[in-house]
C-alpha cells in the first residue's frame, strides 16, 4: 500500500487506524495504534516514541536488571520508532486499520543496535557489500485448541481440547475439521500482502502449518512476525487459541524451519552449480553450508531463545539433535533441498518461538564467514543422524548462553553490545526458571518428602 493510497482512504473514512509496531527481543510486535489523520499530519514526518524498556524487559514485560541500554539508573527514557514505509499494508482482520513496521533509533538518530530488525539489517548490508543477497522462507507450525485464550489461562493450560484428536499429518479430512479458521487466516494474510502457498496438517494433535512464498531476508522476517501476530488475533476472534510455543506438550513440538540461499545482487544462483552431479552445489554453496556447521553451536541461542525451546530436541521427533547436513535428510540439523534455482539449505533447529530477525541474521553471518574463509564442507551425512557421532545441538539454554557469551566470533560479527544484551536476555530467563516451582516437582515431591 502506498502513502497516496493511505491518504485517500483516510480521507474517505475507509481507514481510521494506523498500527505502528516494532519487534521486541521475544519476536513480538509492540507499538501503538495511531489515529489515521494524526499519523499523516505528525507521525509520518518524524515517527513516534516508545519507552526503551521494550528491548530490556522479560516476557511478562517486567523491568529487569543487566541491560546497558535501559535501566532505572538511565531513567527508562524513550527511543524513536521510525516507520518503514515499504512495510505499509492492510490488516483485513481489523476493520479500518493498516499496519507498518518501524526501525528503532535513539533520539539523536543513531541506531539501537540491539534491536532485532537492526541486527538483521547489519548482516543484510554485510552480505550486500560482498555482492550477495539472502532469500529466505520460514515455515511456522502451531497447535490449535477449541478453548479460548482466556479459558486456557483460567485452566492453567491443563486439559485443553486440541482441534484434532489424532495425528493429521497431510490429512485432508483432518485439515477440513479446522478449515474455516485456517481459511480465514490465509485470506487475511493474502490481504496483508503475503503470498500464501499452502496449508497442511502436522503430527501433534491439532497441529497445522501455513506456508508462504520466500522473499528477501528482511521482508520475509517482517511477514513472519505479522503473520504470527495476526494468526493469534484471528484465532482469538474466532473463539480458538493457537500457540507457536516450541514444545507445548510431550508430543512433537512446533518448528520454524528456515530455508535460505544466497544469490548474486543480479539474481544469479551463486550457490548452485549443475557441474556438481551429486548435490548441485557450487564452491560458494559448499562454503555457505560449512559456515553453518562451524557456527551453529555458538549461535544456537538465536535459534532457541527460551528454556522451553530445548525440550524440542528429542531423537526421532523430527526436531534435530545432530549438527550434520544431508541431502533431503530430515534427521539432520541442516537439510539441503531443491535443484538449480530452487537449491536452498533448510535449518531445522529453530522452533515456533524463534525471533526470525535474530535467527536469519545468524544464518547470514555464518554463511558469509564460511564463504569469506572458503571453509571446506564435510561429506553429506547419509542415514539416521540421531544415531550418529556428530556434534550435538546444545541441549539446554545454559549451554547455549555460555557458547554465545564466550564466542570471539560472535563479538566480532554482532558487536560486544549485542552479545552482552542477549546474554542477559538468556540469564533473565534462566533465573526466572530457576526460581519456579513446577507441576513436575509437586507431583514428584509433595507426598514423598
What would you say about this model in short?
With 449 residues, the protein is an alpha+beta fold. It has helices at residues 3-12, 36-46, 116-129, 149-154, 172-176, 179-191, 217-237, 283-295, 300-303, 356-372, 397-405, 408-414, 416-435, 439-445; strands spanning 17-23, 29-35, 48-51, 78-83, 89-90, 97-105, 132-145, 196-201, 207-212, 215-216, 241-243, 256-264, 322-327, 332-337, 344-347. A hairpin with a 6-residue loop joins strand 5 (89-90) and strand 6 (97-105).
- Broad shape: globular
Q: In the residues, how many domains can be counted?
A: 2
CATH architecture of the largest domain: 2-Layer Sandwich
Query: Could you state the order of secondary-structure elements as H and E?
Result: HEEHEEEEHEHHHEEEHEEHHEEEHHHHH
Tally of helical segments: 14
Structural class designation: alpha+beta
Low-confidence stretches: none
Give the class-level CATH name of the largest domain.
Alpha Beta
What is the end-to-end distance? 63 Å
Main beta sheet strand tally, sense and closure: 9 strands, mixed
CATH superfamily of the largest domain: Glutamine synthetase/guanido kinase, catalytic domain
Radius of gyration: 22 Å
Strand segment count: 15
Helix content: 25-40%
Any overview of this molecule?
Helices cover 35% and strands 20% of the residues. It has 449 residues and is an alpha+beta fold. The protein folds into 2 domains: 3-112, Glutamine synthetase, N-terminal domain (Ubiquitin-like (UB roll)), CATH 3.10.20.70; 123-440, Glutamine synthetase/guanido kinase, catalytic domain (Creatine Kinase, Chain A, domain 2, 2-Layer Sandwich), CATH 3.30.590.10. Strands 7, 8, 9, 10, 11, 12, 13, 14 and 15 form a 9-stranded mixed β-sheet that branches. Strands 1, 2, 3, 4, 5 and 6 form a 6-stranded mixed β-sheet that branches.
Amino acid at each position: 500500500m502506498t502513502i497516496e493510497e493511505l491518504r485517500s482512504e483516510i480521507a474517505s473514512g475507509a481507514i481510521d487506524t494506523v498500527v505502528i509496531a516494532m519487534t521486541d527481543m521475544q519476536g513480538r510486535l509492540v507499538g501503538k495504534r495511531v489515529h489515521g489523520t494524526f499519523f499523516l499530519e505528525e507521525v509520518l514526518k518524524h515517527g513516534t516514541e516508545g519507552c526503551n524498556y521494550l528491548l530490556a524487559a522479560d516476557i511478562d514485560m517486567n523491568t529487569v536488571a543487566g541491560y546497558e541500554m535501559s535501566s532505572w539508573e538511565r531513567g527508562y527514557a524513550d527511543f524513536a520508532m521510525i516507520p518503514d514505509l515499504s512495510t505499509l499494508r492492510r490488516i483485513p482482520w481489523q476493520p479500518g486499520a493498516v499496519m507498518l513496521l518501524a526501525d528503532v533509533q535513539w533520539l539523536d538518530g543513531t541506531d539501537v543496535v540491539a534491536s532485532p530488525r537492526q541486527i538483521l539489517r547489519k548482516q543484510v548490508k554485510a552480505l550486500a557489500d560482498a555482492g550477495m543477497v539472502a532469500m529466505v522462507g520460514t515455515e511456522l507450525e502451531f497447535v490449535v485448541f477449541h478453548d479460548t485464550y482466556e479459558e486456557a489461562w483460567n485452566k492453567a493450560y491443563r486439559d485443553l481440547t486440541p482441534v484434532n484428536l489424532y495425528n493429521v499429518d497431510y490429512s485432508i479430512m483432518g485439515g477440513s475439521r479446522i478449515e474455516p479458521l485456517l481459511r480465514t487466516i490465509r485470506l487475511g494474510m493474502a490481504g496483508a500482502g503475503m503470498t500464501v502457498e499452502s496449508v497442511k496438517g502436522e503430527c501433534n494433535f491439532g497441529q497445522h502449518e501455513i506456508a508462504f512464498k520466500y522473499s528477501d531476508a528482511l521482508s520475509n522476517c517482517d511477514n513472519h512476525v505479522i503473520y504470527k501476530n495476526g494468526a493469534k488475533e484471528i484465532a482469538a476472534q474466532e473463539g480458538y487459541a493457537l500457540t507457536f510455543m516450541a514444545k507445548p506438550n510431550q508430543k512433537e513440538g512446533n518448528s520454524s524451519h528456515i530455508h535460505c540461499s544466497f544469490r548474486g545482487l543480479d539474481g544469479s544462483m551463486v550457490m548452485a552449480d549443475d557441474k556438481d552431479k551429486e548435490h548441485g552445489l557450487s564452491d560458494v554453496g559448499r562454503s555457505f553450508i560449512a559456515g553453518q556447521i562451524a557456527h551453529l553451536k555458538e549461535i544456537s541461542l538465536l535459534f532457541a531463545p527460551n528454556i522451553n525451546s530445548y525440550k524440542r530436541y528429542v531423537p526421532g521427533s523430527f526436531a534435530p539433535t545432530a549438527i550434520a547436513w544431508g541431502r533431503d535428510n530430515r534427521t539432520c540439523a541442516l537439510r539441503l533441498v531443491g535443484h538449480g534455482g530452487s537449491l536452498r539449505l533448510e535449518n531445522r533447529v529453530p522452533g515456533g518461538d524463534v525471533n526470525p530477525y535474530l535467527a536469519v541474521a545468524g544464518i547470514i553471518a555464518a554463511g558469509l564467514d564460511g564463504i569469506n574463509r572458503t571453509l571446506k564442507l564435510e561429506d553429506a551425512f547419509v542415514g539416521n543422524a540421531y544415531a550418529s557421532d556428530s556434534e550435538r545441538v546444545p541441549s539446554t539454554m545454559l549451554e547455549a548462553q555460555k557458547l554465545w557469551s564466550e564466542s570471539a566470533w560472535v563479538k566480532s560479527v554482532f558487536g560486544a553490545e549485542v552479545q552482552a544484551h542477549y546474554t542477559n536476555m538468556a540469564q533473565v530467563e534462566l533465573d526466572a526458571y530457576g526460581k519456579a516451582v513446577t507441576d513436575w516437582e509437586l507431583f514428584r515431591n509433595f507426598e514423598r518428602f
